[in-house]
Design a protein that fits this description.
The protein is built from four helices and nine strands. The chain is an alpha+beta fold. The chain has one domain: RNA polymerase II/Efflux pump adaptor protein, barrel-sandwich hybrid domain (OB fold (Dihydrolipoamide Acetyltransferase, E2P)). Strand 6 and strand 7 form a beta hairpin. It is globular, with a radius of gyration of 13 Å. The model has no long low-confidence stretch (mean pLDDT 93).
Length: 128
């Protein structure tokens, strides 16, 4: 499993790639491995306002369904429509082709609870 150093992470296994006032969100390689074969991704509606910690999406696999949470407050600016026809991208390329949604961040909203790759790895060790 890999956890790129240029990303931020959450304790609920989302990764965040910051780019100015936008944040691209997906699930970590740990989450993708735990889910196993993803068969469906319920994408959020573009334009939807979300709060940090709010459920935004659901990923279904042959093993389970898992909620995906907004790591930050903002408006859903884009979704990865490629996941509709090929949800396996989430397993095959979770940090690149398998991103789920992109947020336009609410100005001044706190960015609390985001973890570095080292901090995220420590949370995984605590789950074992």
């Amino acid at each position: 499993m890999e956890f790129p150093h240029d990303l931020k992470y959450t304790s609920t296994h989302e990764w965040i790639r910051m780019d100015g006032n936008r944040a691209r969100v997906g699930v970590t390689s740990f989450a993708a491995q735990e889910l196993s074969d993803v068969v469906y991704v319920d994408l959020p509606e573009v334009g939807k306002e979300v709060q940090a910690g709010q459920e935004v999406s659901v990923v279904e696999s042959v093993k389970a369904a898992s909620s995906i949470y907004a790591p930050l407050a903002g408006r859903v600016a884009d979704v990865n429509t490629a996941l509709k026809s090929n949800p396996a991208l989430l397993n095959e390329s979770c940090y690149q082709e398998g991103w789920i949604f992109e947020l336009e961040l609410t100005p001044g909203a706190p960015a609390q609870g985001l973890l570095t790759s080292k901090e995220y790895l420590k949370t995984l060790e605590g789950e074992k």
